[in-house]
Amino acid sequence: MTDDRSSDDSAADTERAETDSQATDGGNEASETPIEADIVADAAADEDVPQADLVDVLVVLNASLIGSHATYEREYEYVTVDSVRGYVVDTAAWETLREEHDDLDSRLAAAAQRAHTEQTEQLLAADDDTHETIDAGIVVGIDTAEGMD
User: Residue 45: inside a domain, yes or no?
Assistant: First the structure.
């Protein structure tokens, strides 16, 4: 796969959040996380971390969060839009995630939290939820074995 786009084309950079991993390892890691490419790009830029590294962290976190729906559903308000569930969590939920993944670089962990929170805010807005701002959010895809034939 050859990328002929200019490196200073910001729209192309946003789209590459999904395609960079395809070019390097043949897989599509970004599709393994329910966070939109533009949000990943913004969070990486805001926290000054490499976008590819942030995608890797988001993939790891998503894998660990997939089995956590029941816990979050009991404890937090949530919204579901297009097979993605956004939980409005407190910062303690993120502290727990960071403890569970204590090998994460602190800047990458902050970027991951920012990406999850921004995606949750977008899901809330898409569902016409009245939250002005939230402290923290966690998003998890809900396409699981239930949806398979």
Answer: yes
Tell whether 4 is covered by a domain: no
DSSP run (H or E) holding 79: strand 77-81
Asked if 54 and 116 count as a contact pair (C-beta separation under 8 A), the reply is no
Question: Does a structural domain hold residue 2?
Answer: no
The range of the structural domain enclosing residue 108 comes to 10-147
Which of 35, 4, 6, 1 is closest to 19 using CA atoms?
A: 1
Query: Using one digit for the tens of pLDDT, what is the confidence trace for 6-19?
Result: 344 433 333 334 43
Measured CA to CA in angstroms, residue 57 lies from 3, 29, 49 at distances of 24, 10, 11
Q: Does residue 80 lie in a domain region? A: yes
Distance CA 82, CA 142 (A): 9
The pTM of the full predicted model, rounded to 2 decimals, is 0.76
Measured over the CA atoms of residue 66, residue 72, residue 74 and residue 76, the dihedral's sign is negative
pLDDT tens string 30-86: 567 899 999 999 999 999 999 999 999 999 999 889 888 888 989 999 999 988 999
* Amino acid present at 142: I
Cα dihedral 9, 13, 14, 16 sign? positive
